[in-house]
Amino acid sequence: KIADQFIEKLIEKTRSIQAGNPTSKDNVLGVLESRRAANRIQHLLEDAQNKGADLPLGIHIEDTTMQPTLVLNIKPDMLLYREESFGPVCTVQRFSSIEEGIVLANDSEFGLSSAVFSQNISQALEVAKQIDSGICHINGATVHDEAQMPFGGTKSSGYGRFGSKASIAEFTDLRWVTIQTQSRHYPI
Fold first, then answer.
1. Which domains does the chain have, with CATH numbers?
2. Which is nearest to 131 in space by CA: 96, 157, 165?
3. Cβ-based burial of 91 (10 A; exposed 0-12, middle 13-18, buried ≥19)
4. Which helix (H) or strand (E) is 41 found in, with range?
5. Tens of pLDDT, residues 17-49
6. pLDDT tens per residue across span 2-18
7. pTM given for the model
Protein backbone atom coordinates (compact mmCIF):
# COMPACT_ATOMS: atom_id res chain seq x y z
CA LYS A 1 0.00 0.00 0.00
CA ILE A 2 2.63 2.54 1.08
CA ALA A 3 5.00 1.35 -1.66
CA ASP A 4 2.40 1.87 -4.40
CA GLN A 5 1.72 5.45 -3.29
CA PHE A 6 5.43 6.16 -2.94
CA ILE A 7 6.26 4.70 -6.37
CA GLU A 8 3.48 6.70 -8.03
CA LYS A 9 4.86 9.95 -6.57
CA LEU A 10 8.44 8.93 -7.34
CA ILE A 11 7.60 8.29 -11.00
CA GLU A 12 5.88 11.67 -11.24
CA LYS A 13 8.84 13.48 -9.63
CA THR A 14 11.42 11.60 -11.70
CA ARG A 15 9.62 12.54 -14.94
CA SER A 16 10.03 16.21 -13.99
CA ILE A 17 13.84 15.98 -13.65
CA GLN A 18 15.88 16.67 -16.79
CA ALA A 19 19.49 15.75 -17.44
CA GLY A 20 21.60 17.67 -19.92
CA ASN A 21 24.06 20.53 -20.19
CA PRO A 22 24.66 21.57 -16.57
CA THR A 23 24.99 25.24 -17.54
CA SER A 24 21.31 25.29 -18.50
CA LYS A 25 18.95 26.23 -15.68
CA ASP A 26 16.46 23.68 -17.04
CA ASN A 27 18.76 20.75 -16.25
CA VAL A 28 18.93 19.59 -12.66
CA LEU A 29 21.31 16.77 -13.62
CA GLY A 30 24.48 17.06 -15.68
CA VAL A 31 26.09 14.39 -17.82
CA LEU A 32 27.94 11.16 -17.04
CA GLU A 33 31.73 11.33 -16.88
CA SER A 34 32.30 9.25 -20.03
CA ARG A 35 30.69 7.14 -22.74
CA ARG A 36 32.24 4.12 -21.02
CA ALA A 37 30.26 4.96 -17.86
CA ALA A 38 27.08 5.27 -19.94
CA ASN A 39 27.68 1.85 -21.52
CA ARG A 40 28.31 0.29 -18.10
CA ILE A 41 25.09 1.71 -16.66
CA GLN A 42 23.11 0.63 -19.71
CA HIS A 43 24.47 -2.90 -19.25
CA LEU A 44 23.39 -2.92 -15.58
CA LEU A 45 19.90 -1.68 -16.49
CA GLU A 46 19.43 -4.12 -19.37
CA ASP A 47 20.57 -7.00 -17.15
CA ALA A 48 17.96 -6.02 -14.54
CA GLN A 49 15.27 -5.65 -17.19
CA ASN A 50 16.11 -9.03 -18.74
CA LYS A 51 15.84 -10.65 -15.30
CA GLY A 52 12.38 -9.25 -14.56
CA ALA A 53 12.85 -5.72 -13.21
CA ASP A 54 10.33 -3.09 -14.25
CA LEU A 55 11.68 0.21 -15.61
CA PRO A 56 8.54 2.39 -15.77
CA LEU A 57 10.34 5.30 -17.46
CA GLY A 58 12.52 3.15 -19.71
CA ILE A 59 16.22 3.68 -20.39
CA HIS A 60 17.15 6.96 -22.08
CA ILE A 61 20.87 7.42 -22.68
CA GLU A 62 22.22 9.59 -25.48
CA ASP A 63 26.03 9.73 -25.58
CA THR A 64 26.85 10.80 -21.98
CA THR A 65 23.45 12.28 -21.17
CA MET A 66 21.30 9.92 -19.17
CA GLN A 67 17.79 10.72 -18.01
CA PRO A 68 16.90 9.53 -14.49
CA THR A 69 15.86 5.89 -14.40
CA LEU A 70 13.71 4.00 -11.91
CA VAL A 71 14.12 0.27 -11.39
CA LEU A 72 11.32 -1.58 -9.61
CA ASN A 73 11.27 -5.18 -8.43
CA ILE A 74 15.06 -5.49 -8.25
CA LYS A 75 16.29 -8.91 -7.10
CA PRO A 76 19.61 -10.27 -5.76
CA ASP A 77 20.46 -12.07 -9.04
CA MET A 78 20.61 -8.74 -10.92
CA LEU A 79 23.97 -7.02 -11.34
CA LEU A 80 22.44 -3.71 -10.28
CA TYR A 81 21.51 -5.23 -6.91
CA ARG A 82 25.20 -5.68 -6.05
CA GLU A 83 27.00 -2.98 -8.08
CA GLU A 84 26.94 0.78 -7.71
CA SER A 85 25.67 2.42 -10.89
CA PHE A 86 27.28 5.86 -10.41
CA GLY A 87 24.45 7.29 -12.48
CA PRO A 88 20.95 8.72 -12.05
CA VAL A 89 19.43 5.34 -11.18
CA CYS A 90 17.01 4.72 -8.32
CA THR A 91 16.05 1.19 -7.33
CA VAL A 92 12.98 0.42 -5.26
CA GLN A 93 12.62 -2.71 -3.15
CA ARG A 94 9.45 -3.62 -1.32
CA PHE A 95 9.53 -5.07 2.19
CA SER A 96 6.83 -5.85 4.72
CA SER A 97 8.54 -5.29 8.07
CA ILE A 98 11.16 -3.02 9.55
CA GLU A 99 13.37 -6.03 10.20
CA GLU A 100 13.16 -7.10 6.54
CA GLY A 101 13.98 -3.54 5.45
CA ILE A 102 17.10 -3.51 7.64
CA VAL A 103 18.23 -6.86 6.21
CA LEU A 104 17.79 -5.50 2.66
CA ALA A 105 19.64 -2.28 3.51
CA ASN A 106 22.59 -4.25 4.90
CA ASP A 107 22.69 -6.81 2.07
CA SER A 108 25.46 -4.97 0.26
CA GLU A 109 29.22 -4.85 0.30
CA PHE A 110 28.89 -1.05 0.28
CA GLY A 111 27.99 1.27 3.11
CA LEU A 112 28.61 4.93 2.35
CA SER A 113 25.26 6.54 3.04
CA SER A 114 21.71 5.52 3.89
CA ALA A 115 18.41 7.19 4.68
CA VAL A 116 15.45 6.31 6.86
CA PHE A 117 12.10 8.04 6.45
CA SER A 118 9.55 7.96 9.26
CA GLN A 119 7.16 10.16 11.19
CA ASN A 120 8.38 8.36 14.32
CA ILE A 121 11.86 9.79 14.94
CA SER A 122 12.61 7.44 17.87
CA GLN A 123 11.87 4.43 15.70
CA ALA A 124 13.89 5.93 12.82
CA LEU A 125 16.89 6.35 15.15
CA GLU A 126 16.64 2.69 16.19
CA VAL A 127 16.57 1.64 12.53
CA ALA A 128 19.49 3.96 11.69
CA LYS A 129 21.58 2.31 14.43
CA GLN A 130 21.09 -1.07 12.74
CA ILE A 131 22.03 -0.01 9.20
CA ASP A 132 25.71 -0.59 8.43
CA SER A 133 26.68 2.67 6.74
CA GLY A 134 29.05 5.50 7.51
CA ILE A 135 26.26 8.07 7.26
CA CYS A 136 22.53 7.74 7.88
CA HIS A 137 20.11 10.60 7.27
CA ILE A 138 16.68 10.58 8.83
CA ASN A 139 14.00 12.13 6.64
CA GLY A 140 16.60 13.41 4.18
CA ALA A 141 18.32 12.31 1.00
CA THR A 142 21.43 10.12 1.09
CA VAL A 143 23.37 12.74 -0.86
CA HIS A 144 24.05 15.30 1.84
CA ASP A 145 27.43 16.78 2.63
CA GLU A 146 28.33 19.60 4.97
CA ALA A 147 31.77 20.92 5.87
CA GLN A 148 31.40 20.07 9.57
CA MET A 149 30.32 16.46 9.08
CA PRO A 150 32.73 13.52 9.20
CA PHE A 151 32.21 12.03 5.72
CA GLY A 152 33.03 8.37 5.05
CA GLY A 153 31.63 4.88 4.64
CA THR A 154 31.89 1.33 5.90
CA LYS A 155 32.62 -1.99 4.21
CA SER A 156 33.79 -1.46 0.58
CA SER A 157 32.72 2.18 0.66
CA GLY A 158 35.88 3.30 2.38
CA TYR A 159 37.83 3.49 5.55
CA GLY A 160 38.16 6.49 7.80
CA ARG A 161 36.53 9.89 7.69
CA PHE A 162 37.28 13.26 6.21
CA GLY A 163 35.71 16.65 6.79
CA SER A 164 35.89 18.91 9.82
CA LYS A 165 38.06 17.71 12.72
CA ALA A 166 37.97 14.16 11.37
CA SER A 167 40.31 15.26 8.57
CA ILE A 168 43.01 16.20 11.03
CA ALA A 169 43.14 12.68 12.45
CA GLU A 170 42.75 10.91 9.09
CA PHE A 171 45.31 12.95 7.16
CA THR A 172 47.91 13.30 9.92
CA ASP A 173 50.56 10.84 10.98
CA LEU A 174 50.95 11.43 14.69
CA ARG A 175 54.53 11.06 15.88
CA TRP A 176 56.28 11.75 19.12
CA VAL A 177 59.79 13.18 18.85
CA THR A 178 61.91 13.85 21.93
CA ILE A 179 65.20 15.60 22.42
CA GLN A 180 67.32 14.74 25.41
CA THR A 181 69.61 17.60 26.36
CA GLN A 182 70.91 16.25 29.65
CA SER A 183 71.16 12.99 31.52
CA ARG A 184 68.02 11.57 32.97
CA HIS A 185 67.61 11.74 36.72
CA TYR A 186 67.50 7.95 36.95
CA PRO A 187 70.17 5.52 35.75
CA ILE A 188 69.67 3.61 32.51
1. 1-94 (3.40.309.10), 110-174 (no CATH)
2. 157
3. middle
4. helix 35-50
5. 999 998 999 999 999 999 999 999 999 999 999
6. 899 999 999 999 999 99
7. 0.77
